[in-house]
Design goal:
Shape: globular
Strand content: over 45%
Radius of gyration: 21 Å
Number of helices: 1
Strand order of the largest sheet: 1-28-27-26
Order of helices and strands: EEEEEEEEEEEEHEEEEEEEEEEEEEEEE
Structural class: mainly beta
Amino acid sequence: MLTPGDLDLSFATGGKLELVFPGSSNYLAQSVMFSASGKLMLSWANDRPKFGSAQGFYGMECLNKDGTPDTSFGEGGYVHDRFVEREDVLPSAGQQTLQMSDGHYLLFGTFKNSNNCYIPCLAMYTKEGHLDESFGQKGKFVFDDPISTGPYNSQFAWASFQSSEHIMIAYQRTFGVDDWANVLVRVTTSGHVDSTFNDNKGEAIARPSPGENCNCLGIAIQPDLKILVYGQSESGDAFIQRFESNGQIDTGFADSGVYRRPDWKINHLMVQPDEKLLLCGESENTALLVRLNADASFDQHFNEGKPNLTPLGEDSRWSKVALHNNGQIVTIGSNTPFMSGTSVLGRFQSDGKLDEGFGKGTGWVATDYGLGVSQPIDLALDMRGFIYVLGKHQGLAVQPDLLLLRYID
């Protein structure tokens, strides 16, 4: 009998679905989410023949819950395109799918321009997978960044709905030699930059302190529409910076708007409905799970007010966290001893203790996808009793194996 934490053997082959992107020999699935209608939406980066050579495209895939393509979406369950259709522009890549209240899909991603910079982009699609040309410029939004140049620019970019009318985008910009930081831009749901953001500046700069370089790893939006940016400073400190909903730094948060920890790395942060901050990552090569109050103080009702350091094995971390309607916490992560790696799925009670009803009493399960390095990418919770994990396995081949796994919740 299957128990919580077991692979669902009725799904695909032994609970694992091998993923490929049709027409491409080089591809990577970057995220998975559930649509309002219960479909699984995957965001892709993929190469396709164009202009006589392989060019980078974004992609989006729609799957039924049993893992079969929803052939009513796009072309056989897939869409693919480029954010900028010019021969000299380098790869486009899809990174994240968001869904509008009317059911339309927003695919967020980047393209790499001739200055070796990753520029944030959006494309709007109908529920049926057709480009909605009423959005932005013929269905697409490409941010016009005249400043950023390599080589410090990273592929990091993230998007989140701030409200029914606005999308927040964060990405890394290089201002000059040894000078880079993270930029917040607000885009309307019609596909245009909101120039009123941050006192009509149109953007806000996120840094843990003035002049300090940093890499931003994500953003989250509070119920009061305040904006949280989290990442890593150049010195290695984890930081969370909070902005007012209008783009001004919220100096009432933590220390002049910034919370810092020299012993943490934050890989993912989400805001609970009660405005508490649930974050995961690593500390001293050990998987880390923490819940903070809205003012960045430790939540005394979570693991007795202390970070939960989970002994998953050598060199371990949690990479994503999700919250059940019943308050249970689900995490994905990995342990990566030398030249190997194992994917890990965990479940915690709302008080921050490992759930002994999951993983045959341990609270977590480890899965090897094959010989080599197994790494989870994203997860999606099906409230009917399943956990979907998007993962990749890197063996000897250049192209990693992409998998969608379904676990009993």
